[in-house]
Each structure stands twice: as C-alpha cells, then as structure tokens.
Specification:
This protein has about 325 residues and is mainly α. It has one domain: Ribonucleotide Reductase, subunit A (Orthogonal Bundle). About 65% of the residues lie in helices and about 0% in strands. It has twelve helices and no strands. It has helices spanning about 25-35, 45-50, 60-90, 95-125, 125-130, 135, 140-150, 165-185, 185-200, 205-235, 240-265, 275-290. Helix 8 (about 165-185) runs parallel beside helix 11 (about 240-265). The longest helix has about 30 residues, at about 60-90.
Length: about 325
Amino acid sequence: MAKKGIINNVGTDPNKILPMSYPWAREHYKSGVNNNWVPEEISMQLDIELWKREGEGALSPEERRMILWNLGFFSTAESLTANNLVLAVYNHVTNPESRQYLLRQAYEEAIHTDTFIYCCDSLGLDPDEIYNMYETIPSIKAKDDFVVDFTKSVYDPNFKTDTPENIQKFVHDLIGFYVIMEGIFFYAGFAMILSMKRQNKMVGIGDQFQYILRDESVHLAFGLDLIRTIRDENPEIWTEEFEADIRDKIKVAVELEKNYVDDAMPNGFLGLNPQTVKDYVEHIADRRLERLAMPLEYNKESPFPWMAEVIDVSKEKNFFETQVTEYKNSGSLDW
C-alpha cells in the first residue's frame, strides 16, 4: 500500500527537505536547538560534598536509595531510547523534516547518556552497580522489559509499514516508546529528583534532571504529533479494539511505575512520600490519554503544581503535562 504521508512515502526524496509538509516537526527541531546544553556546564561540587557527608546534615538512607534507583533506571533507559530512534523509528519515518528532528533527538539522548556518566563519575559511584540495575533491580527490569516487549515489532529487520496492519503495529510501538517510556516511566523520577532539589539537596543532579525534563517535553510533543499525524493519515488503524489495547497497556505501565516508586522510596522522606508520587503518575497518565484523544482513566489532580513552573515557557500553564502550544525563548532558564 504505497501512499503519500509521513511514513511509507515512496515518493519522498529524503535528501530534499524543502518544501516542508509538516511544519510542526521543524518547530520541534528549533526548540531542541534552543535548548542546547551539555552536562559539564553544571557544577557537581555541592552534590559531591553532600554525598560524602556523614552525621548531621547528611542524606538519609532513603534519600540515597532514591537517587541511586533513579540513576540506575535513567542510565540505561536513555540508551534504550536512543536505540529505538536510530534502529527503528528513523527507518520508517520517511519525511525529511521529521527525520531532521529525530536526528536532533538522538543527539539529545546521547547528551542524556553522557549526563549519567558525569553524575556517576562525580559521585564516585560503582558503574557496575548503577549500569546493571536494569538487570538486578526487579522494578527497573520490569519497566525496561515492558518497553522492549511493547516495541518489538519495529526491531524486526523485515518489518515494513506497507499495510494497515503494520502501520497499526508501528503506531502501537511509537506509543510504547514515546507515551509510555518517555511520557510515563520518566516522570516519577523527574518528580522525585526535582522535589529534592526544592529542598536544596543534590542541586547539581536536580539541575541536570531539569534540563533533561525540558528536552523530554519536546520529545514527547514530537512523538504525540507524529502519532496523531499517522492516525489522521490512516484512520482505519484506530479501531475500538486497538484503543482498548492501548488503554490496557497504559494502565499496566502506571502500575509498573507505581511499583518502581514503592521500590525507590519505600518509606518516603521529608517533603515526599510514595503515595503522592503515585498520584502524580496517574495524573500524568491521564494527560497522555488526553493527548491521544482518549477518555481519562484516573481523574487525578497534580499533587505537584510547582512542576508546571519548572520550565520557563510562555503561554503554557502545564507545559510538559499537557499539549504544547508555544515553546519560545526556551533556551534560557531562570534558576
């Protein structure tokens, strides 16, 4: 089934980016350029001092556990994300301006991977412990395994988006990659680390997570626009059965993320408790369902209204939790 569109367009010359068919892809690319950063720009000295401190003013065992669990999850999740982009998504999205953004996103994923190398080196952490957590920590392994299984179709070297059935599989995998991995599995960690930063603890890691969150906001916006466009161009793929399957899998993802929260911070600590973070995960999941034009599931208000102010964005009350309407002057943050 050869037809014009953002994928499987045999008439597209991938080397000819003008004229553009999808200006939103170009806007996301420019937002990414405006966000440019590298981890070495952020000092880790205060984090190193606090991490090594003992006795009064030191981090609690619960706080240290939460930090280690998040470094363990994100250190390999970012590599998994990059592999999805380079080995799977890019191959099937034939539109040149969308490919330009995917290359930008792949670069940002490399920056994020470098960030966790920088954090681990700065704190003197055991790299074998951190980078093997996706195998040794059951709650982290469960999330990674879920995404790998969710996105397995596009890894088949013989897979092509040349039939409605395979286009549906591709959209299914895009939802696993963008909506579940980047849009749900990342956000409990963002809330935990940034909550600690609000207490003026581990501010270097907090700043780096804030930069990563700003990047991921645009990744998510691009992914949702890509999914929406494929759906609009191939409306026959969005059946009641398909939507029900996606809803069920988002609900499973929410439970996996809540299990991870209980594992990363079983008892909570000053300013943060597991139930509040789990409520936030449900709130975020509803925002993802809303962007997919699906009914809400949890009807939870955000327990962290301050998260809406983490990114310096005009004309957007809850930028990374809702639809992107404007992302101008995004390269400057007011810390």
